């Protein structure tokens, strides 16, 4: 197909979940697809999605966007088929493949959610790499997930183009995963403003429904994954409340079993009245919580980007976060940094920003400016070009 023509892009959304377990990646990808479809020169997109997540992409249906439900209109390729497709290219092309997406008219495959189930020889492939944390922290993952990530890295080596969500992620892609630097493009995982502020009345209504009031808590919206460091945050919060007994903390995220464990930990520390542990919440609820927070506390051990940090900056909410290179890439000088391995360092940050004053005001003002720079990036345009072959 001549370069620049509108192409039929199949989008692998097989991992898309309705329970929030995809984290910020799902929100980004859905926003990206909305922006891509809205372009005057939009390609034709076809989403491959499981039945339970089909409702999430239904609003995108239109002339430039169709949905194929896995198990109904199309099946996921069996493991043996995936292994055959991974044979050396000259050999793989000789093997008949009745399940090829090319038979359905695919010109390009786009894998935006950390899986490459549908990659096949001869079909141009663009994939997003969010992080390679398993290479630095393998203990955060069980054997099955490590194996899946290993297969994903191998498929990235065969992809035509790979998008890294930060410069630090590209560095890991090249230095740790062995990708060729010229095939990796850095594009941040945000389309337009990271968060749109709610009106005062709507914010108050939502916070009231959650039994919260603006300015009375610090917030940490993050799925309850091991690398998010919730346990050490509770320990630091316990320490900080000795001098600031009025301090309160709001947590929210997916993964119910881990959430229940965290609730028990808070109870064991005598924090039941001071720590609210919410499940996965709606977008407006998360916006209201972030916008109303005294500040964001973000003690993660590892990030590919750190979307909540940018979201807080965009809302004018001060940020205290882990001193990680990628978070400095996102926030620059507009955050208070601490050592996520050190309980005392986290507690000191909690106390400092809880007191308020000039530090918190300066961080909020600088954060808005920092976030505006990201909002001005033409992310949809960058992806449109990357998906054009």
Structure description:
- There is one protein chain.
- With 389 residues, the protein is α/β, with parallel strands linked by helices.
- Helix content is 40%, strand content 14%.
- The protein folds into two domains: 8-192 and 377-386, Rossmann fold; 200-375, Rossmann fold.
- The strands form two sheets. Strands 3-2-1-4-5-6-7 form a seven-stranded parallel sheet, with helices on one face. Strands 10-9-8-11-12-13 form a six-stranded parallel sheet, sandwiched between helices.
- The N and C termini lie close together (8 Å).
- The mean pLDDT is 94.
Features:
single chain, 389 residues, alpha/beta, Rossmann fold, 6-stranded parallel β-sheet, 15 helices
CATH architecture of the largest domain: 3-Layer(aba) Sandwich
Mean pLDDT: 94
- The tally of domains stands at 2
The fold-level CATH name of the largest domain is Rossmann fold
Largest sheet: 7 strands, parallel
CATH class of the largest domain: Alpha Beta
Coarse structural class: alpha/beta
| Name given to the CATH homologous superfamily of the largest domain | Glycogen Phosphorylase B
The end-to-end distance, rounded to whole angstroms, is: 8 Å
Q: What's the total count of β strands? A: 13
Strand fraction: 5-15%
Concise account of the structure shown:
Helix content is 40%, strand content 14%. With 389 residues, it is of the alpha/beta class. Helix 7 crosses helix 10 and helix 11 packs across helix 14.
Could you give the topology of this structure?
Layout: E1 8-12, H1 24-38, E2 44-49, H2 54-57, E3 65-69, H3 79-85, H4 89-92, E4 108-111, E5 125-129, H5 143-158, E6 161-164, H6 167-175, E7 184-186, H7 200-209, E8 218-221, H8 230-240, E9 249-252, H9 256-268, E10 275-278, H10 283-292, E11 295-298, H11 307-315, E12 319-322, H12 325-331, E13 336-338, H13 343-355, H14 358-375, H15 379-386
């Amino acid at each position: 197909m001549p370069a620049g023509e509108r192409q039929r892009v199949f989008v692998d959304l097989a991992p898309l979940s309705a329970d929030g377990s995809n984290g910020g990646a799902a929100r980004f990808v859905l926003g990206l697809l909305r922006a891509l479809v809205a372009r005057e020169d939009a390609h034709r997109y076809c989403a491959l999605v499981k039945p339970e997540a089909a409702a999430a992409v239904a609003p995108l249906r239109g002339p430039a966007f169709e949905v194929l439900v896995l198990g109904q209109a199309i099946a996921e390729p069996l493991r043996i088929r995936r292994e055959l497709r991974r044979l050396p290219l000259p050999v793989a092309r000789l093997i008949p493949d009745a399940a090829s997406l090319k038979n359905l008219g695919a010109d390009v495959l786009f894998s935006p959610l950390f899986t490459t189930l549908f990659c096949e020889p001869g079909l141009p492939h663009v994939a997003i790499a969010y992080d390679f944390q398993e290479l630095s922290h393998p203990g955060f993952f069980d054997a099955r997930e490590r194996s899946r990530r290993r297969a994903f890295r191998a498929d990235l080596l065969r992809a035509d183009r790979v998008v890294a969500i930060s410069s630090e992620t590209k560095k890991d892609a090249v230095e740790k995963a062995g990708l060729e630097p010229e095939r990796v493009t850095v594009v941040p995982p945000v389309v337009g403003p990271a968060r749109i502020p709610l009106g005062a009345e709507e914010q108050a209504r939502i916070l009231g429904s959650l039994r919260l009031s603006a300015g009375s808590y610090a917030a940490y919206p993050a799925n309850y994954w091991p690398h998010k460091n919730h346990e050490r945050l509770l320990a630091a919060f316990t320490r900080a409340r000795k001098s600031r007994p009025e301090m309160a903390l709001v947590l929210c995220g997916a993964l119910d079993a881990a959430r229940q464990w965290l609730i028990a930990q808070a109870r064991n520390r005598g924090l039941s009245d001071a720590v609210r542990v919410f499940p996965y919440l709606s977008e407006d609820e998360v916006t209201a919580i972030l916008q109303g927070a005294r500040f964001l506390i973000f003690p993660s051990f590892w990030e590919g980007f750190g979307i909540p940090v940018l979201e807080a900056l965009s809302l004018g909410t001060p940020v205290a976060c882990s001193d990680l290179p990628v978070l400095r890439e996102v926030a620059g000088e507009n955050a208070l940094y601490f050592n996520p391995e050190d309980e005392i360092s986290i507690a000191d940050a909690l106390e400092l920003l809880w007191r308020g004053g000039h530090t918190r005001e300066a961080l909020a003002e600088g954060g808005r400016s920092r976030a505006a720079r990201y909002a001005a990036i033409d992310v949809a345009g960058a992806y449109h070009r990357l998906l054009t072959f």
